[in-house]
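REQUEST FORM: STRUCTURE PREDICTION
Request ID: SP-0412
Submitted by: Lab K.M.
Chain count: 1
Length (residues): 97
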Amino acid sequence: MPLFCFYCRDGENNENLREMHMKAQREWMAEHDENYLTAGPLLNAKGDFVGSLLIIEAEDEAAARATINDDPYVTGGVWQSIRVDRFEPVKGRWKEG
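STATUS: Completed
RESULT:
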């Protein structure tokens, strides 16, 4: 099944928004665990949160996007922008074939 990489960048006031929505976001991800290969925060050189990286397995990009539509970080405005690209692993544990 195809993999999709979501590069999610935090917006203004991200520290407060992350704190407000983190518990709900972690619970939401646990409930939708079957589509996530991995997910976690992106940090800058100082160790501050600047976004998140998600790798989601889905039939197509529309289904992958539907996986996160109701994520509390989306609905709560934590992520300012989300870029989605198909991910084709060639090395490592996710390599297909």
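NOTES: The first helix runs from residue 14 to 31.
Reviewed by: T.R.
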